[in-house]
Amino acid sequence: MNNETEKTIQRFICIPYAIKVTRLDIIEFQTQPFKLKRFHLARLDLAIESLQAMFNAVREELYSKHRLNVTVVRREADYTTFKWMSRHQSGEITYTSAELKQITTDILMDVFMNLPVPQKLPAWI
Q1: Has this prediction a pTM greater than 0.85?
Q2: At a CB cut-off of 8 Å and minimum separation 6, what does 81 contact?
């Protein structure tokens, strides 16, 4: 497996984690008193939309271009093992919790650095 394919698998694994973290952030922002709540909630909504679009593109690339299927094999306290399979090859990739957290953080940093400023703030907040 080459480096590009491994990066695609990493993004396929960690983007759902990033979406979950962002949704938990929305819940936290909604429950806490915060002066710029509307602005940050609008940015978090844009981030989720961006992450979902990114995940759909990564999933399409993984299945159509690389013809790979990735599943979780084993979850332990310190590591998670994923199995990837194509028509002619298969293998396992193991990531520690710290590695998954770092990859997820890198994805979130990339998304938030490239987010546009929300033009219309929702009136429901």
Answers
A1: yes
A2: 72, 73, 74, 75, 92, 93, 94
Whole-number pLDDT of residue 10: 95
pLDDT, tens only, 23-49: 999 999 888 887 778 888 888 999 999
Tokens of 79: 């590591």
DSSP labels, the chain: --HHHHHHHHHHHHHHHHHHHHHHHHHHHHHS--TTHHHHHHHHHHHHHHHHHHHHHHHHIIIIIS--EEEEEEE-SSEEEEEEE-SS-EEEEEEEHHHHHHHHHHHHHHHHHTPPPPSS--TT-
